[in-house]
């Protein structure tokens, strides 16, 4: 019983990954003197005027400074000098139009003057809001187009067949819109196309890989995150397909490894993520595109293992990113080459020891081996990873022994998660050298130590979790230098700490101004890198978000992201005694406070009423005396309140949030009366004494663990949203497009 209780009284930090892939786009600025054609300048102005610019009047110019310069008056009347417009030097025709990220709002109609600009070779309307209009079939009029970028511009409907008339296209970017239907087979007429990107739409139906057979220029094919099913017919796949440099078939309903990959020796980027590929990773996969491959993503499949011997290290000599997360991989941990920046293999069933070889990954920035069955002790060289390591996540394995003892100054580590293993012994104080550290989770291990006050030195530390270990003794901060200047989440729960509640850890909250913190900022680590390929750049930018499992509002929840402004203290299930000091009222920014299951014996301080943002307050299973202060009804955001199993007396306050709490918030206090309890205040009996346990037992009370689980008050006001509750497959955190290194200057006809 008790251990079940211990399991739910926690807050833990996980790490989760978000992947954002963004673009670098370098413009060459036009310097043209030619005079534009009158019909084209009026077509441009008409096009401009067919939109409003989203946002307030005053921000218009900020939203799209380009378009503001467009006018027929005075010196600026030459449309070839307008921002975003490029004309042919000789003919004066408009050949390039770039109104990307202009906040244009409105529909593109079939009679839009855009289609009069028939000399256009490059058109970029990405990142606008075309109000879910369709691409009019008149786009077929722009037959000279080589580059068409309509990414993220709120277009919908089917891709018009006439688009396939644009046989000069080399780039077609339709990603992140709302396009429907299947991809027209006539796309094969775009035999000059180099990049086809329909990522993140609602396209459905089947796509036959063989239809791309004759598109010999096709280098990058991104069909990911639609409702498409990719069919791969062996008859065309052997030697005849284009040589791709990038393939993204994420969420394309694949059920096996496409054999044609064997013949692809120039791949730089391959994603087969979010498919239903089962069985073993075939041996040949380790050997495709050995020199060229930079990114390999097989995450979110049903892979169970590896065929043959897994080479150590893996033979892709220039690999930067390897993602094998969320499969069912068994066997020992594959070791990527030393070039690897990011290695993700959480949520599998890998076992055995972590080989010394892993320390050869001297460029590694993010290493996530969490949620496997890795065992044995850690290679002590782990702390010798280069200065590049930012994230180290070993959560939820079976690792044991001491954690590495020497941590050097000057490392960049921002997140460490060693939780849910079997690590023992004391914590190395050299962890205090990790000056960049923002979050560390050591919870659910067997560390046996006094409170690691020396973390108080770290200027950026936001989250410290040491729950469910054997930490013990009173919490003493020996020196005023240990200020914990940035701490916002502290979880000490389920240890054997004694003495007074250590609220002085948070004294800086009194002085800091948190008002300016944005609710949109999440605790995360961002990295990026670029793969250049010919005239293209893939600029990849990764967000690694903290995720936190927390007992909030009486329920145990996993949040994918944690807002930086969230403040929580969990000191439950220890042996703290004495009072809840009045100084609790200084922690005005607190959202969650849990000191349940200790030996606290004071009154409930009135000053709690100052914690205006408090959402969850758990004081249950102590020896608190006196009445529940009426002032607590002022806490408008309080959704969960639990004072059960104390020695409280008197009337239960009523009104506001208190009307939403049920009797399990109050039970086990024989001196309490009034709604929602059944004992009427008029007929109150003298309080019966609570059966006492000896102070030697691990827990102050014997109790039924269910008490703690059921308690749940439905608040009417919602305050801080810590993050989003986990959903397993969420392509929300995957965003990308491809970027050109540079847009060409001017083109002669
Ligand atoms: C956007 O579309 C909606 C629905 O079709 C329409 O009511 C609205 O007028 C459109 N707005 C603009 C600016 O075109
Ligand atoms: C363009 O078409 C829309 C409807 O599709 C119509 O409301 C508008 O008047 C037309 N504009 C011109 C200039 O014909
Ligand atoms: C498209 O081109 C055809 C002929 O080339 C022309 O008649 C038509 O007006 C054009 N459409 C638009 C919308 O400009
Ligand atoms: C453009 O495409 C349409 C539909 O696919 C077709 O009917 C038309 O003949 C094509 N026009 C040209 C000039 O190729
Ligand atoms: C594709 O989706 C459309 C609705 O958006 C539906 O009418 C059509 O049947 C779907 N096609 C397939 C092959 O599922
Ligand atoms: C394609 O290659 C595979 C093995 O790589 C072979 O089994 C298959 O017969 C070949 N198909 C054709 C059509 O050549
Ligand atoms: C893939 O797996 C999911 C979940 O197991 C299932 O719902 C879906 O139907 C599968 N799709 C295919 C193409 O097998
Ligand atoms: C751990 O990984 C397994 C797959 O091996 C998965 O089913 C489970 O949901 C994962 N647990 C967490 C907490 O992510
Ligand atoms: C990688 O590590 C292993 C074991 O620690 C070592 O024997 C080997 O020499 C290292 N290789 C390189 C290239 O550093
Ligand atoms: C990429 O990362 C570097 C260093 O980490 C940083 O200076 C740069 O601004 C980042 N670039 C982008 C586009 O995020
Ligand atoms: C509860 O409080 C009453 C007085 O209010 C006291 O007599 C009793 O001993 C207390 N019980 C415990 C367990 O502290
Ligand atoms: C499409 O346009 C957007 C906005 O300018 C840009 O970020 C993106 O790189 C472009 N895509 C390509 C492939 O050029």
From TrEMBL:
InterPro entries, sorted: Leu-rich_rpt (IPR001611), Leu-rich_rpt_typical-subtyp (IPR003591), LRR_dom_sf (IPR032675), LRR_N_plant-typ (IPR013210), LRR_R13L4/SHOC2-like (IPR055414), RLP23-like (IPR046956)
Domain annotation Disease resistance R13L4/SHOC-2-like LRR: ranges: 97-307
Q: Where in the cell is it found?
A: Cell membrane; Secreted, Cell wall
Keyword Repeat annotated:
yes
GO-annotated cellular components: plasma membrane
Database matches in SMART domains: LRR_TYP (SM00369)
Report keywords, A-Z.
Answer: Cell membrane, Cell wall, Glycoprotein, Leucine-rich repeat, Membrane, Receptor, Repeat, Secreted, Signal, Transmembrane, Transmembrane helix
- Indicate how the chain sits in the lipid bilayer: Single-pass type I membrane protein
Transmembrane segments annotated in the record for this chain: 705-726
Q: Which GO terms describe its biological process?
A: anatomical structure morphogenesis; plant organ development
**Which ranges carry the Leucine-rich repeat-containing N-terminal plant-type domain?**
39-88
One Pfam family of this protein, by short name? LRRNT_2
> What's the family?
Belongs to the polygalacturonase-inhibiting protein family. Belongs to the RLP family.
Q: What is this protein called?
A: Leucine-rich repeat-containing N-terminal plant-type domain-containing protein
Q: What species is given as this protein's source?
A: Quercus rubra
């Amino acid at each position: 019983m008790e251990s079940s209780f211990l399991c739910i009284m926690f807050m833990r930090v996980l790490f989760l990954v978000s992947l954002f892939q963004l673009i670098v786009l370098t413009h060459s600025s036009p310097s043209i003197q030619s005079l534009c054609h009158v019909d084209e300048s009026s077509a441009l102005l008409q096009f401009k005027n067919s939109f409003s610019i989203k946002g307030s009047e005053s921000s218009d110019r900020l939203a799209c400074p380009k378009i503001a310069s467009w006018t027929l008056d005075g010196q600026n009347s030459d449309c070839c000098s307008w921002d975003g417009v490029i004309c042919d030097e000789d003919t004066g025709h408009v050949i390039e139009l770039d109104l990307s990220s202009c906040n244009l709002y409105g529909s593109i109609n079939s009679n839009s003057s855009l289609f009069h600009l028939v000399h256009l070779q490059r058109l970029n309307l990405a990142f606008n809001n075309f109000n879910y209009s369709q691409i009019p079939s008149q786009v077929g009029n722009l037959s000279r187009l080589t580059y068409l970028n309509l990414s993220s511009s709120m277009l919908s409907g089917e891709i018009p067949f006439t688009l396939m008339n644009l046989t000069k296209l080399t780039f077609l970017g339709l990603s992140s819109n709302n396009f429907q239907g299947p991809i027209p087979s006539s796309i094969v007429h775009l035999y000059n196309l180099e990049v086809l990107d329909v990522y993140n739409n609602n396209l459905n139906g089947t796509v036959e890989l063989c239809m791309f057979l004759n598109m010999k220029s096709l280098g990058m094919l991104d069909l990911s995150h639609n409702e498409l099913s990719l069919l791969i017919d062996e008859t065309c796949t052997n030697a005849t397909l284009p040589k791709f440099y990038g393939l993204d078939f994420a969420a394309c309903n694949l059920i096996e490894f496409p054999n044609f990959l064997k013949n692809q020796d120039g791949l730089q980027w391959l994603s087969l993520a979010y498919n239903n590929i089962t069985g073993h990773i075939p041996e040949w996969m380790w050997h495709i595109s050995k020199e060229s491959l930079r990114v390999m993503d097989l995450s979110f499949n049903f892979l169970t293992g590896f065929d043959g011997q897994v080479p150590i290290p893996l033979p892709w000599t220039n690999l930067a990113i390897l993602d094998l997360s969320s499969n069912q991989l068994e066997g020992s941990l594959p070791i990527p080459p030393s070039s690897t920046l990011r290695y993700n293999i959480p949520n599998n069933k890998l076992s055995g020891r972590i080989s010394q070889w892993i320390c050869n990954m001297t460029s590694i920035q993010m290493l996530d081996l969490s949620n496997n069955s890795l065992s044995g002790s850690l290679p002590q060289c782990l702390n010798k990873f280069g200065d590049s390591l930012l994230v180290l996540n070993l959560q939820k394995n079976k690792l044991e022994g001491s954690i590495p003892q020497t941590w050097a100054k000057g490392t960049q580590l921002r997140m460490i998660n060693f939780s849910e293993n079997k690590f023992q012994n004391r914590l190395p104080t050299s962890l205090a050298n990790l000056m960049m550290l923002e979050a560390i989770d050591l919870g659910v291990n067997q560390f046996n130590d006094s409170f690691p006050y020396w973390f108080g030195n770290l200027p950026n530390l936001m989250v410290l979790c040491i729950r469910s270990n054997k930490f013990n003794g009173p919490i003493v901060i020996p020196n005023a230098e240990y200020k914990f200047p940035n701490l916002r989440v502290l979880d000490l729960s389920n240890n054997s700490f004694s003495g007074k509640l250590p609220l002085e850890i948070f004294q800086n909250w009194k002085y800091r101004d948190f008002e300016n913190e944005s609710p949109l900022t999440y605790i995360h680590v961002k990295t990026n890198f670029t793969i250049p390929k010919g005239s293209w750049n893939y600029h990849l930018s990764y967000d690694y978000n903290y995720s936190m499992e927390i007992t909030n509002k009486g329920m145990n929840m996993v949040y994918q992201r944690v807002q930086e402004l969230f403040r929580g203290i969990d000191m439950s299930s220890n042996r703290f005694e004495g009072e809840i000091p009045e100084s609790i009222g200084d922690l005005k920014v607190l959202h969650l406070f849990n000191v349940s299951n200790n030996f606290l014996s004071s009154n409930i301080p009135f000053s709690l009423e100052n914690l205006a943002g408090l959402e969850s307050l758990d004081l249950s299973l102590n020896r608190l005396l006196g009445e529940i202060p009426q002032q607590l009804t002022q806490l408008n955001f309080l959704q969960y309140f639990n004072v059960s199993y104390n020695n409280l007396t008197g009337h239960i306050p009523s009104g506001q949030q208190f009307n939403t709490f049920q009797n399990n918030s109050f039970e086990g206090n024989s001196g309490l009366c009034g709604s929602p309890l059944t004992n009427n205040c008029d007929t109150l009996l003298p309080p019966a004494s609570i059966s006492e346990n000896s102070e030697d037992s691990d827990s102050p009370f014997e109790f039924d663990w269910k008490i703690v689980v059921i308690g749940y008050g439905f608040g009417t006001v919602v305050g801080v949203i810590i993050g989003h509750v986990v959903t397993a497959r969420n392509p929300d955190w995957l965003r990308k497009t491809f970027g050109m290194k540079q847009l060409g200057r001017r083109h002669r006809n």
